[in-house]
Write a structure and sequence with these properties.
Length: 216
């Protein structure tokens, strides 16, 4: 079964979601994301290893290392935030090396992906009957992406914005206030240009080659 890849070949497991953001409530789940390395010889077969695996724990999802790196190079917000999670539950030597490599994945395309993901969430919201939890995470994603654009790393812990974000979740801010906050954050992306134009693919490929060799 595919779940055998986790934890048997796991190199990294982190907590994400509200508990990593500092926005948890008593009802919040523990969301885990991870990376595993499939044995290299398995790629020599017609049937390849999975690119991702659900479980075995509830709310746990893991990527095979090559898929994870590919998504990170594309500035996938969910994947990038895994690399900066403040809660690392498990990391092997390969996992520690991946964390140390995280700046190699950062590039200016993150401006588009973070803002784009937030915009997609915004378009799914109905101003007449907004889903306030979704609205909160839309704003959180913009805050994280703006910090990345300015400082080279996403903002995961939302301590400085916690009270206002939770007020959004509780529906204590009007839709107009939330939309105004969103518009202000989107406008600031245009002034943030601290990121390199492209990620450092060479460093990432060298890491993948070492990892595959070690898994022979």
């Amino acid at each position: 079964m595919e779940v055998r890849y986790v934890p048997d070949h796991s190199i990294l497991s982190v907590v994400v979601g509200s508990r990593a953001y500092g926005l948890e409530t008593e009802e919040s789940d523990v969301d885990r994301r991870g990376v595993f390395v499939a044995p290299t010889r398995m790629f020599w077969r017609l049937a390849k290893p999975p690119t991702h695996v659900d479980g075995p724990l509830p709310e746990q999802f893991s990527w095979e290392v090559e898929r994870f790196c590919g998504l990170a190079l594309e500035a996938n917000p969910t994947v990038l935030e895994c690399l900066w999670s403040p809660i690392v539950e498990h990391a092997t030597a390969a996992g520690e090396e991946l964390l140390a490599l995280r700046d190699a994945f950062v590039s200016g395309r993150a401006n588009r992906t973070f803002a784009g993901y937030a915009d997609a969430q915004f378009r799914r919201l109905d101003p007449a009957r907004p889903k306030w939890k979704q609205a909160m995470h839309m704003i959180r994603l913009l805050l994280s992406g703006l910090h990345l654009a300015r400082h080279g790393e996403p903002l995961v812990r939302m301590d400085a914005h916690r009270d206002r974000l939770l007020a959004v979740r509780r529906g204590e801010l009007s839709w107009d206030e939330v939309d105004r906050w969103r518009s202000e954050l989107v406008a600031r992306f245009g002034d943030a240009d601290a990121l390199p134009a492209e990620p450092d693919r060479r460093r990432v490929e060298e890491y993948l080659a070492r990892t595959r060799e070690a898994a022979l």
